[in-house]
Specification:
The chain is an alpha/beta fold. It has a single domain, classed as Alpha-Beta Barrel (TIM Barrel), CATH 3.20.20.70. Helix 4 packs across helix 5 and helix 4 packs parallel to helix 12. Bound molecules: the ligand O=C(O)c1ccccc1NCC(=O)[C@H](O)[C@H](O)COP(=O)(O)O. Ligand LARABZUK binds next to strand 10 and helix 11. One of its GO terms (biological process) is L-tryptophan biosynthetic process.
Amino acid sequence: MNILDKIVADKRKEVDLRKSLIPMSQLEQSVLFDRQTFSLANKLRNSQTGIIAEHKRRSPSKSVINQNLNVFDVAKGYEDAGVCGMSVLTDGKYFGGSLDDLLTARASCNVPLLRKEFIIDEYQLLEAKAYGADVILLIAAILTRNEIKQFSEFAKSLNLDVLLEVHNEEELHKSIMPSLDMLGVNNRNLKTFDVSLETSKRLSTLIPTDFVKVSESGISNIEAIKELQPYGYQGFLIGENFMKTDDAGESAKQFIKSLL
Ligand SMILES: O=C(O)c1ccccc1NCC(=O)[C@H](O)[C@H](O)COP(=O)(O)O
């Protein structure tokens, strides 16, 4: 079994348990459920830099990145740096994240928040809304076309933006549909962890122009952004490069300053 299959198998068990502990009706009663959400897609369309900065303590490919940073300070730092959005990993077992991280980030800043998760059930979209997210991620590699349609339409009914992530042509062809806002190309192969910006370049021409294009993973310098912008990318998801430093917000600030 590859790592992605393992993550998804574990996630199914976790979501089943969560559902039995907190019913959907309780999530819908969250004070955050009826808040006006921020659109990441609109922010990216109107930005010169397009940085989506991630909170990421550890990962299957790198094990520990940084366990010492406080998500409240990281969120505030990213906002002060001028990011377009913040991605918050909420998976506990593989990334050391939690829904509490999402809530803490929400309490700390007013930038669009992406719940970075392995979404396999509509229940997780209700959780995303209840804990303050504005955007959800759908990963084509772990979903059927019908699931992508069902989850993205449900997310839109909750006023959440949808970022659909692909890694190859087949995933892209099965996923294109009007209920998506942003098409993300992950430069990291989630089964082997190989990273190449060439993936974003190769797939760029196949993405219809009505979607905001986002390049994800393995972006560690300004040159990478300059290389990807001519391919139509308006969003750049960056995790490790900021999180490996002592001050992720300051690192994002210097990065964005050099881009302008
Ligand atoms: O990062 C991993 O090792 C990983 C492994 C398996 C599934 C997902 C994984 N990462 C999620 C992400 O998409 C990245 O955290 C995100 O794009 C930022 O990447 P980076 O800038 O390389 O930290």
